[in-house]
Protein 1
Amino acid sequence: MFGKEGYVVRPSTTNSYQERLNRVLIHIQKNLDEPLTIERLAEVACLSPFHFHRIFSAHVGETVTGYVRRLRLERAATRIAFTGESVTDTALGVGYETPAAFTRAFRERFGMSPSEFRGQQRETILSFAENSTAKEIIVMKPEMREFSKTKVLFVRRTGAYGEAATAAWEALMGFAYKNRLMTGETLMVGIGHDDPAITAEEKIRYDACVTFSGDVKPEGEVGIQTIAGGRYAVFLHKGAYTGLPEIYRNIFAGWLATSGCTLRDQPCFEVYLNRDPRRTKPENLRTEIWVPVV
């Protein structure tokens, strides 16, 4: 295959770059509160800083600094919207050294200060809680469960959740069946990292994941990450996957506000209970939504 500048790129080289970038992307999402210099990330990728910067931009579509900055601000927006922590704590928690620098960057990204953003989100939640659907969710009791940290194989796609999920699962299941990894004990897990109300649709990240046992190595776009352990509120959704966005709105704008729970700084994930969703009628699909709480 040919690269953007006309030179030949061998498939083995492309796979190597994908494996290295997977390591970097997971490192970034787990360490947004730490210094993330080009030199350190290049070290994670086992590349020189010069080549790493070019390869990252070509594959991800953003510069390293731009990508990290965007993720920090979007994570901050979620924390401001759904937790009661102070702006100072949020700023420090996403890697800013001072609240002033954070507020400037936040205003540039969202067009308002963090305090104004929080006020806007609270008005939205109060308005949402007045309709009957939200009231039904508020009184619904999720099951509280402990989850042990678990390594999973994953493939990431970006874009609208429906399209990204379909593409990610197609790629992952091809690898899993080729390597005979699917057993009766395998969990099929989806991780949606971003809130569509905050993140631009084309930048939304979705990971299709399966649990595994034994010695399985990353290969090309198939990487390995660890789902955090801890306490989760688990909701059961019965029906088509197209109904999931409404359930999430009900959870975050309805149930969370009255639950007494606080979100942990980890992504929610979904566990798909049907062994072959393609052969299951939409009304018979069962999906668990795991929300990390304390």
Note: Residues 143-292 form a domain with the Multidrug-efflux Transporter 1 Regulator Bmrr; Chain A fold (CATH 3.20.80.10).
Protein 2
Amino acid sequence: MNNLIVLNKNDNVGVTQFIIPEKTKIEGKDIVTKDPIPFGHKVCLKNINKGDPVIKYDQIIGFASKNINTGEHVHSHNLEFKEFDRNYKVSEKKLILDEKNDTFFNGILRDNGQVATRNYIGIVSTVNCSATVTKMIVEKIKYSNILNDYPNIDGIVPITHSTGCGMNTESEGMQIFQRTIDGFKNHPNFSHVFVIGLGCECAQISLFDESLKKHNRIHFLTIQDEGGTKKIVDKVLSQIKNLLSEANNVERAPQSVNNLILALQCGGSDGYSGISANPALGVAADML
């Protein structure tokens, strides 16, 4: 079989579900391949002039960097990207369920009004240099099995990364980084959060101590101020043990689904994402 996936009459490329050899007649099309077409790749359905848009699933995915003839393989060697006007329409929601309907989930209402779906303790590093300490704290808690005595605590989670050190403190990158750390430290799924820095990095702990705080269950420490790795690990372990009873003191109760925030993450697109995962996630989001 060598048929193509073509979803719209405007498409000038089709996606193959199989490896198609050169000089192969495409089923249902007056097209003979001029190149070998790899699995999941695109075949030109009609001549595309240089500069014309390449359309797949009725979407512009790029522009021809040279003339592309019918039956040719369409890929990075003859496709380029550039800006173009995008016409879109925001659809109005027609079916909005109010809180009187049976649209609830068993969530945890935090003391600041946020609603959680989980009840974790978070250990967040502000710099790559504190990542090892962050992981050590988490591993010591996990292997101690102390959380077995606190059934309402879902676990302890390390948040580490590879940046935060030699950064321009005025840059857009630092702003994005700070918003990301702020998002973790304020996340409702964390009952308590420990934000740990080294002490000499550009992303100083004070950036996060002085920025947006949505609750008072956040603790800030630096390795250098505490006297090194062993001392900060021991201190944080002691603090965690002292707050376990408080973290465990939560109850799940019906919470409106409008408190949920749905996050979608690309796991690595392929030639079929546009007709499989993407619309499936869209439908799931609409249902929610």
Note: The chain has a mean pLDDT of 90.
Protein 3
Amino acid sequence: VSRFIIALIIANGIAVMLESNPAIHYEYAHLFAAFEVFSVIIFTVEYLARLWAATEYPKYAGMNPILARIRWIFRPMPIVDLLAILPFYLSLVVPIDLRYLRLFRLLRLLKLSHHFDGLEVFAIVLRREAGAIAGALTIMMIITIVSACLMFTVENSAAPGHFESVSQAIWWAVVTLTTVGYGDITPITFPGKLLGIAIMILGVGTMALPAGILAARFSEELRTRRELMQGKVRDALIDGILDAAELHELESLQRDLGLSADELQRIIAVQQRLLARHHYCPHCGEALTGTD
């Protein structure tokens, strides 16, 4: 079922791109319409199924079923799921511009986060590092505005039609700091070129800050989850036997941590090989060498 939903989501993204071509849209309009109806039916059933099963979430344990489902509805991803199908039903009673309808249909691509654990981990990292990322973005904004003001001051009178305002200079600053370099606006004075060189060099390190923060935190989060999984597997194997109840608990934890089933099996295999060579203290997990 999961693979079918993933394939359907990707197919919807492809359909939106193809449908934007007028020639293809008019020739295959009936097929696009049929596919849209089919997709909305499937996504509606999926949404209702998730809504019904919301009471099974551990965080809603013991809560009134109606209240649990209401709280689930207002979570970020359920809102995205609803926005991905709601415009279709609204378009049946209210005329909606096709461009906006197509934009909401693209939200269906975000539904992939239900089926790829890595995306969920990335979302967690974003939330935890929101402060650091906000700080990095603030620094980038300040550098952009200062660069634009300096370039406007230097080039305004020398390059008419290019640096006519600070807002136009901001466009140049963003393009330069990100090292994109469209070339539609360029400084022509010597001081302006020197300033441009300094801004380019500054941009190489500054614009990489958010990416560096996310990459480091993402790697750390995965390592922490693997270490937690390894500890739980080691505890389960203390007696040398992994029974069905322990395996079920480990599999549940593996899903909660966003790790793959193959990774769990690798961790179990590694810990079993270590256990074959050493005995471990049941309290601290340290190897007890020389123990019979």
Note: Residues 131-207 form a domain with the Helix Hairpins fold (CATH 1.10.287.70).
Protein 4
Amino acid sequence: MPLPAGLTQRPLALDDAAAVTAIMAAEELRDTGQVSIEEADLLADWQRPSFDLPTGTVGVLDGDRLVAYAELSGPDRAHAAVDPAHHGRGIGSHLAGWLQERARSVGSAVVGMPVPQGSPGDRLLEALGFHVRWTSWVLAMPDGATIAAPPLPAGVTIREATPAEHRAVWMVVEDAFLEWSARARQSFEDFGAQVLRRPGFEAWNLRVAAAPDGAVVGAAVVLLAGTTGFVDKLAVRRDRRGLGLGQALLADAFAAARGHGAVRSELSTDSRTGALGLYQRVGMDVTSVWVNRAIAV
């Protein structure tokens, strides 16, 4: 679909991050009643060495004002948002077409993006032929509730990661995520851009479970978004699962966030991981449901 009359488009730059964040936040608030996106999320993703911002993004402008955007952030991974005040103008359909064309140009066979279940974006993508690849859930602890930390195996400690452990954390996380995510292994440099060089990163954001010999056998990345502690990544080495390390890391990560001012504890998971039941068993409640809709290109 062509760009609607009266609008223009251009590639994005790093200094567009604040405007894009505002558009995404407006859609999230309208669709889910809460806002999770932060400018740091975009900057961390956009500064990955593997990502070319000028060719991987497009912004739609009404005059000088940015009103929508789209990005192909990975071979089959996309994001898009339209200012709710500009819905109904055909911008979303145009961006869906742009993403499919961009995905084809880099050799992808499919492209998909997350949208809140039942939202205008979900309905639009369904109408355009996008199917649901997987379902995601955002979960939160009830106000005032905490997760009980189970006893640790003998000699195992949970603590802040040291710089010397950063590569080991990356390996544990990637090994675990690649068990269920059909994608290429993320480079340590991209991991570093998204986690270690994320704006606002502090050492306490990276937690590890260390075996008696010092080996990293589990890891968590916890972010502080306003007054919310958000566990962005959680992984346990395959040979150390079933020992309570996942719950222990989760309890530690949320406790670390509370120690830095968090009053709310959140995370997200999806149907590829099989982890929803684990989080519900420790007392977390689903607060919003998202679907990843994709289409062959």
Note: The mean pLDDT is 97.
